[in-house]
Amino acid sequence: MALAVCLLFDGPTERVLRRLWQRLESDGVPTLGTHTHGRHVPHLSLAVLRSWDLEKVHAAVEALPDAGPLTVQFDAIAAFRRGRMSLVPAATTELVTRQERVVEALGATADELHKHYVPGTWTPHVTVATRVRLEQTPLVLEATYEILPLTGMLTGAALVDAGTGTVHPLTVVP
């Protein structure tokens, strides 16, 4: 599977996102709440590695300076391939710089870093729903537009094993 370097939301923002997942699930739309292992947390991934050494990744990210909390503004939803729909924050200079800094610190090769996380091609996003069927799209849009615009606060960070849902907390917010 994959290992993601994730920024995590503060409690109030996480609750808004989890309520959105719950509403969509009650409408029959699959979300990260039940996807794969069902242990997903609302997050924004800065990098996703397809192969990794956990200790090396942990050390590389922990060596970065703590950049502190980051406010993100959501006012859009996007539909990605294979039915994934996500909130898309404004790609501020600070957010993009943090993503580039993490990727650089990882020193990931093209084979290790997932192609959608290469700086310059990365689209910041927070997954709302997975495997959305075309006829479910209006349900996702309606539920999402009810919470937009949304100001969120990213206050923590972790390495997350996408295969197991295991969260490895970080002491820095890169």
Give structural notes.
There is one protein chain. This protein is α+β, with helices and mostly antiparallel strands. It has a domain at 3-72 and 93-123 and 150-169. Helices cover 28% and strands 29% of the residues. The protein has four helices and seven strands. Strands 1, 2, 3, 4, 5, 6 and 7 form a seven-stranded antiparallel β-sheet that branches. β6 (150-161) and β7 (167-169) form a beta hairpin. It is globular and about 45 Å long. The chain starts with a strand and ends in a 5-residue tail after the last strand. The mean pLDDT is 94.
List the topology elements.
Layout: E1 3-9, H1 11-26, E2 43-49, H2 54-62, E3 70-80, E4 84-89, H3 93-106, E5 126-129, H4 137-145, E6 150-161, E7 167-169
Antiparallel strand pairs: 1-2, 1-6, 3-4, 3-6, 4-5, 6-7
Query: Count the helices. How many?
Result: 4
For the secondary structure, the number of strands is 7
| Radius of gyration computed on alpha carbons | 15 Å
The end-to-end span amounts to 23 Å
What's the pLDDT, averaged over the residues? Answer: 94
Per the principal axes of the C-alpha atoms, what is the gross shape?
A: globular
Helix content: 25-40%
Q: Beta-strand level of the residues, as a percent range?
A: 25-35%
| Spans where pLDDT lies below 50 across 5 or more residues | none
Taken in chain order, the helices and strands follow as EHEHEEHEHEE
Largest sheet: 7 strands, antiparallel
Helix vs. strand class: alpha+beta
